[in-house]
């Protein structure tokens, strides 16, 4: 895989030296003090915090943080898992920051995209994310082919077996996948996915918006 074009952009020459922090905890019971202290110690002039699951696509404080950043600034997080919902999500966010001329640092992993070494690591991450997705898709196709060879009826079955449900859940962790694309790949309807994966129901853990069209 070729890394996103934005990861190849040169780092802005005139870094402002302004650090802006972002932190997140999964539940309201968790304490943000450790992240706050670390980010402040790292020199952040302002820190934004979300208190919600990393799988939640609606992260208002992250949106506010990204809007606050200006070219030459650097976004700082305590660790990579505080920023991205998945590896692909992390790559997407960092690529957008680079497009805007904003640097990125992760304290725990000692990553810094304002350095050549940091940029190299994200090239590797981008390639790894695509490799994982291709493995999932290829495994799904092989499983379906084996099922056809055994004479199993595919298409729009009344039920999904445990193996197919597991594959669907793995694909749902990929931000670029939709309910419709996964249903098509697995040969089932969107309604079947919703019926067999409770996380997709309103109030569930997964916030995936199905594409328009008939089920």
UniProtKB/TrEMBL annotation:
<dbReference type="GO" id="GO:0003677">
    <property type="term" value="F:DNA binding"/>
</dbReference>
<keyword id="KW-0233">DNA recombination</keyword>
<keyword id="KW-0238">DNA-binding</keyword>
<keyword id="KW-0229">DNA integration</keyword>
<dbReference type="GO" id="GO:0000150">
    <property type="term" value="F:DNA strand exchange activity"/>
</dbReference>
<feature type="active site" description="O-(5'-phospho-DNA)-serine intermediate">
    <location>
        <position position="26"/>
    </location>
</feature>
<dbReference type="InterPro" id="IPR006119">
    <property type="entry name" value="Resolv_N"/>
</dbReference>
<comment type="similarity">
    <text>Belongs to the site-specific recombinase resolvase family.</text>
</comment>
<dbReference type="InterPro" id="IPR006120">
    <property type="entry name" value="Resolvase_HTH_dom"/>
</dbReference>
<dbReference type="InterPro" id="IPR009057">
    <property type="entry name" value="Homeodomain-like_sf"/>
</dbReference>
<dbReference type="Pfam" id="PF00239">
    <property type="entry name" value="Resolvase"/>
</dbReference>
<feature type="domain" description="Resolvase/invertase-type recombinase catalytic">
    <location>
        <begin position="18"/>
        <end position="151"/>
    </location>
</feature>
<dbReference type="InterPro" id="IPR050639">
    <property type="entry name" value="SSR_resolvase"/>
</dbReference>
<protein>
    <submittedName>
        <fullName>Recombinase family protein</fullName>
    </submittedName>
</protein>
<dbReference type="GO" id="GO:0015074">
    <property type="term" value="P:DNA integration"/>
</dbReference>
<dbReference type="Pfam" id="PF02796">
    <property type="entry name" value="HTH_7"/>
</dbReference>
<dbReference type="InterPro" id="IPR006118">
    <property type="entry name" value="Recombinase_CS"/>
</dbReference>
<dbReference type="InterPro" id="IPR036162">
    <property type="entry name" value="Resolvase-like_N_sf"/>
</dbReference>
